């Protein structure tokens, strides 16, 4: 187990948003959390990342509790990919990716040649080396999302947290990104925890799925078993139909759609 | 695979291949950037020493420096020596130190607050220091006590802002810092107004008013001693941690997730900027706009990477305020207050910058 949550509760002030979350993720595994808006996926991520204190329970990496670890130590274990955003200043893409090296650069130092090589390698891996000297603010949403993933790779983490990584992308780029995530998980032996608004994204790239409803993790397991018409109807409150591809031509294809209501 | 993921990207930002005079000029500018940034301050420094109502030639200047360094036996007249060493040199040093300090603070704050429109006075340092100085003047304290009061109240104002923001904060700490900074600034500005109302209109009031508009006219060697400590400590602290302003400008939570010790950084940056801003106000009054526009000029030269941006901001800030001060002491029969000149030049320039770089901020 790389990332492990034990009876984790989280929320703001006295308000509990999620409670009793138990789950663990190993290397090479991608766990996708699904649940309606406002159910607490982002709150859970912020708690795991250390932005807010857990209200109860424990977060462990390699069996050791995260509490009491410095930001720097946490960041060497765990990286975060936010939704594609804009920066207040037109940083060059290479400078954005270099910020992923922060945990490896002491407070009084600047990036070393090694840091630069790691950053360039991350850009190469994402096939965007040619963007290195472009201003980040002038990129498209899809390109910016790739830069943010490159930045997370440059951090050299073991755990990757992604908050709806494909939500601002067009149809084609969503599919490409999900496929890329699937490849990276195996290639880098990463433990990935991501969230999505679309059960189809879980079908496309997750090795396991968690469903969140009413402040609890209500189901956890293989996408094929957890994502059923009845479980999706239950958490989203609409009639759902799951369709499978032709066993001859698209045996792996599985999608869900909302039925007319 | 990532192949093709970028195909649908908008390409409006891409640079078209350029040929001709424009591109060659731009390439030359890039090549001359570094030597220019070293040579320019030296040239402006020497030029400024010769400028003034009392004529001093470059030859006399070099003779004086040569004699001081023991390189030559030749001497210059006593007047030249006094004008250069006691009047112009302190004033020029002060202008360069203050220009560099305000530009550094502004650049660092713009990154930390993720806002290109903030400046060195955002947390109330200028208003607090201004109040301290006004208090010193109305209480008829000596110059040194007045300067000390200014420095102390400048630091105190920011301490109040920082503590209050820490108590009030929900979520993003920088937002609460800016909000409480504006409040604390407003309170101190009102306190200055109260002092002005109470001040003797024939004597103290003009002194306070003129002082608040900013000037280096009365600078002497002793002022440099007050200025140099805070400026060196603050400036060096910022330059040492400068690269870590890059992750900080992506916001508190993202920076933390990347391993940035944001609380430590905030304390270093706020401490350094407050020292520099308050000591600048203590010696020269309130000189606005430098901390706002110089970082943008510097970004135009080297881009937003703080590794390069901070040193370049310091150099440009020093040269800028020195040139403005040259204008202030040369322009007319009366000394022009510095704050008025920096605003008169700064505001239109800022509009020009806005029009040019609007795209980068959206």
Provide an overview of this structure.
The complex is a heterodimer of chains A (261) and B (362). Chain A is of the alpha/beta class. In chain A, helix 4 (113-125) packs across helix 5 (141-154). In chain A, the strands form three sheets. In chain A, strands 6-7-8-3-9-10 form a six-stranded mixed β-sheet, sandwiched between helices. A four-stranded antiparallel β-sheet of chain A has the order 2-1-4-5, covered by helices on one side. In chain A, 33% of the residues lie in helices and 28% in strands. Chain B has one domain: ABC transporter involved in vitamin B12 uptake, BtuC. The model of chain B is unreliable at 1-18 (pLDDT under 50). Chains A and B meet through helix 2, strand 6, helix 5 and helix 6 of A and helix 10, helix 11 and helix 14 of B.
Layout of helices and strands:
The complex is a heterodimer of chains A (261) and B (362).
Chain A: E1 3-12, E2 15-25, E3 29-34, H1 41-49, E4 56-61, E5 64-65, H2 71-77, E6 78-81, H3 93-98, H4 113-125, H5 141-154, E7 159-163, H6 171-187, E8 191-196, H7 199-205, E9 208-213, E10 216-221, H8 223-226, H9 229-236, E11 240-244, E12 254-258
Parallel strand pairs in A: 3-8, 3-9, 6-7, 7-8
Antiparallel strand pairs in A: 1-2, 1-4, 4-5, 9-10, 11-12
Chain B: H1 21-50, H2 58-68, H3 78-112, H4 125-138, H5 143-168, H6 173-198, H7 204-212, H8 221-240, H9 245-248, H10 252-257, H11 262-284, H12 290-302, H13 306-330, H14 338-361
Helix pairs in contact in B: 1-3, 1-13, 3-8, 3-11, 3-12, 3-13, 4-5, 4-6, 4-7, 4-11, 5-6, 5-11, 8-11, 12-13, 12-14
- Major pleated sheet of chain A: 6 strands, mixed
Please give the share of residues in helix of chain B.
over 70%
Query: Helix coverage percent of residues of chain A?
Result: 25-40%
Mean model confidence by pLDDT of chain B: 88
Rounded mean pLDDT score of chain A: 94
Rg of chain B, Å, rounded: 22 Å
**Can you say what the CATH homologous superfamily of the largest domain in chain A is?**
P-loop containing nucleotide triphosphate hydrolases
Strand percentage of chain A: 25-35%
Low-pLDDT parts of chain A are none
CATH class categorisation of chain B: Mainly Alpha
CATH architecture of chain B: Orthogonal Bundle
């Amino acid at each position: 187990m790389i990332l492990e949550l034990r009876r984790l509760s989280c929320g703001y002030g006295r308000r509990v948003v999620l409670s009793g979350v138990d789950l663990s993720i190993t290397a090479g595994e991608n766990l996708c959390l699904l649940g309606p808006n406002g159910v607490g996926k982002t709150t859970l991520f912020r708690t795991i990342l250390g932005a807010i204190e857990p209200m109860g329970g424990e977060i462990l990496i390699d069996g050791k509790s995260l509490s009491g670890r410095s930001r720097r130590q946490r960041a060497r274990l765990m990286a975060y990919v936010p939704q594609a955003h804009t920066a207040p200043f037109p940083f060059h893409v290479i400078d954005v990716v270099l910020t992923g090296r922060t945990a490896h650069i002491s407070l009084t130092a600047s990036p070393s040649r090694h840091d630069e090589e790691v950053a360039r390698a991350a850009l190469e891996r994402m096939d965007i080396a040619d963007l290195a000297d472009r201003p980040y603010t002038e990129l498209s949403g899809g390109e910016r999302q790739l830069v943010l993933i490159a930045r997370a790779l440059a951090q050299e983490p073991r755990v990757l947290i992604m908050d709806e990584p494909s939500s601002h992308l067009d149809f084609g780029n969503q599919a490409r990104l999900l496929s890329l995530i699937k490849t990276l998980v195996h290639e880098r032996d990463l433990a990935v925890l991501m969230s999505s608004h679309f059960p189809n994204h879980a079908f496309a790239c997750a090795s396991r799925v968690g469903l969140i409803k009413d402040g609890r993790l209500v189901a956890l397991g293989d996408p094929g078993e957890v994502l059923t018409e009845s479980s999706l109807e239950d958490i989203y409150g609409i009639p759902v139909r799951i369709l499978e591809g032709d066993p001859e031509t698209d045996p792996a294809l599985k999608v869900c759609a909302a039925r007319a209501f | 695979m990532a192949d093709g993921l970028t195909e649908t990207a908008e390409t409006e930002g891409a640079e078209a291949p350029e040929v001709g005079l424009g591109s060659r000029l731009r390439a030359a500018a890039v090549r001359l950037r570094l030597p220019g940034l070293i040579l320019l301050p030296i040239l402006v420094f020497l030029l400024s020493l010769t400028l003034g109502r009392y004529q001093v030639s470059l030859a006399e200047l070099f003779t004086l420096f040569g004699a001081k360094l023991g390189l030559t036996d030749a001497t210059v007249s006593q007047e030249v020596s006094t004008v250069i060493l006691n009047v112009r040199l302190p004033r020029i040093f002060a202008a360069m130190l203050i220009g560099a300090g305000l530009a550094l603070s502004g650049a660092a704050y713009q990154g930390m607050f993720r806002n290109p429109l903030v400046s060195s006075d955002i947390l109330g340092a200028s208003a607090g220091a201004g109040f301290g100085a006004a208090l010193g003047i109305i209480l008829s304290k000596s110059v040194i006590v007045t300067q000390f009061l200014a420095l102390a109240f400048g630091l105190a104002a920011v301490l109040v802002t920082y503590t209050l923001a820490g108590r009030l904060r929900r979520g993003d700490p920088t937002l609460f810092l800016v909000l409480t900074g504006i409040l604390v600034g407003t309170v101190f500005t009102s306190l200055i107004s109260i002092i002005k109302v109470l001040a003797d209109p024939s004597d103290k009031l003009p002194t306070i008013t003129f002082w608040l508009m900013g000037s280096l006219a009365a600078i002497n060697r002793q002022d440099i001693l007050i200025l140099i400590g805070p400026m060196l400590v603050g400036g060096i602290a910022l330059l040492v941690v400068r690269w870590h302003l890059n992750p900080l400008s992506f916001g508190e939570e993202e920076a933390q997730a990347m391993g940035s010790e944001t609380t430590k950084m905030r304390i270093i940056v706020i401490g350094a900027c407050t020292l520099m801003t308050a000591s600048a106000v203590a010696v020269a009054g309130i000189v606005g706009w430098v901390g706002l526009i110089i970082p943008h000029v510097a970004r135009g030269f080297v881009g937003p990477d703080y590794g390069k941006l901070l040193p370049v901001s310091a150099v440009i800030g020093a040269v800028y305020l020195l040139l403005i001060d040259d204008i202030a002491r040369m322009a007319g029969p009366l000394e022009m207050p510095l704050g008025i000149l920096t605003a008169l030049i700064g505001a239109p320039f800022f509009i020009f910058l806005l029009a040019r770089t609007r795209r980068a901020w959206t």
